[in-house]
Amino acid sequence: MTRTSLLLLLLVIACALGVITTQHFSRKSFIALEAAQAEAKRLDEDFTRLQLEQGTWSTHKRVEAVASRSLDMRLPQPAATRTLALEAVPPAAKEAR
Fold this sequence. Notes:
- By secondary structure, the protein is an all-alpha fold.
- It is built from three helices and no strands.
- The chain has helices spanning about 1-55, 60-70, 90-95.
């Protein structure tokens, strides 16, 4: 009977150690999950902020101002502008092309 009791005692101790190990692993995994979720939230906030910043920096008015200042770009003079009139193409000529 002592041998059986000793065997059962060893099995109970092994099961207890298994439960402790599993709980420890579960807690570590949960902590890692919370840290990853916090990091994901921070990255999402950064992404939103960067999109807003990109929208601000790429407005037409700002791009025009930078082009005028740094590239010395100006609107052309009306005398230097040419306009071309395109002749209307009949529908039959479009099908032949």
